[in-house]
Amino acid sequence: MLSPQNRQMLKNLAEYGPLVVFFILYYTNKDLFWATGGLLIATVISVLLTYYIERRLPFLPIFTAFAVGIFGGLTLILQDDLFIKIRPTVVNIIFGLVLLIGLVKNKLFLKILLSKALQISDYAWRIMTIRWAIFFFILALLNEIVWRTQDEEFWVNYKVFGVMLLNFFFLAFHIPFIQRNQIKETTLPDKENQEKP
After folding, report:
1. Which of 109, 143, 146, 181 could form a disulfide with 124 if both were Cys (CB 3.0 to 4.6 A apart)?
2. pLDDT digit string (tens) for 58-90?
3. What is the pLDDT of residue 187?
4. What is the rounded CA–CA span in Å between residue 21 and residue 159?
5. For 133-175, how does the pLDDT look when each residue is reduced to its tens digit (9 = 90+)?
6. Are 87 and 67 in contact (CB under 8 A)?
7. E strands within the chain?
8. 53: which residues sit within 8 A by CB, 6+ positions away?
9. Between the CA atoms of 119, 123, 124 and 125, what dihedral angle is there, to the nearest 10 degrees?
């Protein structure tokens, strides 16, 4: 049985490990193909680790592994770095579209994914869904601008550090909104304190 600390450490390793491997291999060899190969292997290990921790395979790690497998595989097979560079664009567009389509169909996918961590009103979930969808589209656009206008090393740095910072600031921006819309748990009074008829 994993302790909470070990569990969290393994979850962080599964989440960030592939990106760290990608970054290290790129800067060790200055070769995007080597880095992509490492990313593929690290992603498979990440999925196995996630299954070990959760005893199930959540949607996001599976989708990420699928996208890395498709675009990373095409990059290595065809020896064309275009595919690994457009992967963030395609993935972010898909995430944005899924959120908006779910919203139209009254499916709050963010709530389904994050309801254990956040207790906020459905109104707040809808606002968050719209904002996250827009954010994903912005990330897709930024990725296209960066890889098309900058050199490979700049794109790698943006992918590893730039996107991480953007995510951090986007999440930090939402803290006051989440606090304002948090649902406070109501507790029923004890039987002893209830008035007798």
Report:
1. 181
2. 888 899 999 999 999 999 999 999 999 999 999
3. 44
4. 13
5. 999 999 999 999 999 999 999 999 999 999 999 999 999 999 9
6. yes
7. none
8. 2, 7, 10, 11, 14
9. 70
In a 3-state reduction of DSSP, which class is residue 181? Answer: coil
Confirm if 129 and 102 have CB atoms less than 8 A apart: yes
Of 79, 108, 141, the domain-final residue:
79
For the chain, how many residues are written? 197
In this structure, the number of other CB atoms found within 10 A of the CB of residue 7 comes to 13
The residue assigned the tokens 């049985």 is 1
Q: Which pLDDT does position 75 carry in this prediction? A: 97
Helix H or strand E segment including 43: helix 32-54
**CA distances (Å), origin 176, targets 123, 124, 125, 135, 182:** 15, 12, 14, 18, 10
* 5 & 63 share domain: yes
Domain with 37 in it:
1-79
Whether residues 136 and 151 share a domain: the answer is: yes
CB 109 within 8 A of CB 98: yes
In terms of domains, do 67 and 102 share one?
no
109, 129 Cβ separation under 8 angstroms = yes
pLDDT tens digits, 41-63: 999 999 999 888 888 888 888 99
Contacts of 43 (CB under 8 A, 6+ apart): 18, 64, 65, 68, 69, 72
